[in-house]
Amino acid sequence: MTVPLPAVAALALLTAAATWGVAFPPLKGLLLVQSGRHAEWWATCALHGVRFLMAGAILAGVAALWCRRRPSGREWELGGILALVVGAGMLLQIGALHDIGAAATGFITQAYVVWVPLAVAVMGRRWPAPSQVAATAMVLAGVFLLSGIRPDDLRLGLGEGAVLAASLLFALQILILERPRYAGCDGLQVTWIMMIGMAATVLPPVLTGGGGAAGLTDLATDGRSMGLLALIAVVSTAVPFWLVNSWQRRLPSPVASILYTAEALTAAAASALIAGWVGDWLGIAYPPEPLGWAFWTAAGLILGACVAAQWPLLRRERIS
Length: 320
Known about the structure:
It is built from 15 helices and no strands. It has helices at about 5-20, 25-35, 40-65, 75-95, 100-110, 110-125, 130-145, 160-175, 185-210, 210-220, 225-245, 255-260, 260-275, 275-280, 295-320. The protein starts with a helix and ends with a helix.
C-alpha cells in the first residue's frame, strides 16, 4: 500500500516539531549554567549562535557528500531569506524574555496559527475551510492550557509586542516555503545556508558585548555543556529544519502551522521526563515539571487539531 504524500509530509513536520520541543529542557539547563556566568541576553544568543553554527557545519558536510554540487542561486536566495526572517524572529523572542514570562512568550508565539490561514484567506480571497477554523481554535485552547497563564497576564506591552512581531516573522517563514518560486530547491542545501546565516545573525552581538570572545572560549572548553549543545545541534536543529525545508511544501501552509504546534506538547512532556537528567548532567538543580490534567487535556486538543487539519487532504488523496 502506498502511503499518501500528505501523510508522509505531516509525519515529517510532526517529527520536526517534536524534536524542537525535546530541546527545551536541555536549552533551559544550559541557559541556567551560562546565565550564572554572563548576562542573560548574552548567554541566550551565544548558545543559539553556536547551535546554529554547529548544525550548519554538519549539514554543509552532508550536502557536499550527498548533493555533489554547489547550491543554486534560488537555494542561496531562499536560505538567506529564511536566515534573516527566522534569525530576526528568534532575537525578538529572546529579547522579550527580559520583559515577560516564558509561558506568555510561548502562548503569544503560537499566534502564527492565526496569521498563516488569515494571510492565505486574504491572498486567495476566500474564507478558511471550517476544518481549519476548528483546528486553529483547538490549538489555541490547548496551548493556552499548557502555558498556565491567566487572561489578565495578556497585555500589550513592549515584550508582548516583540513576541507578536516574532510570531508574524515565523508565519512569514511558513508562507515563504510555500512559494512556487522555490519548489525546485533542495531542502538540504537550503538548510545549511539558513543555519550559517542564522549564526551570522546572532553571533556578532555575542562577540562585541557581554562575555565576548572570552565567554565563547569558556563555553567551548566546557565539555558537558558542549556535548549537550552538540546533541541539540544535530537532533533538534539540523534534522528538523532539514525535514521542514524538504517536506513543508507538500502541505498547505495553514496545515503546516497547526502541525508545528505539537512542539508545545513535547516541550511539556520533556520538561517532566528529562529535566532531572539534564540537571544531573550539568550539575545544577533543575526539578522536573509534573504532567497534570492540563497537559493531557491540551494533548487531546492539539493532536485532535492536527488530525482535523490533515483529514481533508488525506480524504481528497484517497478519492483521487
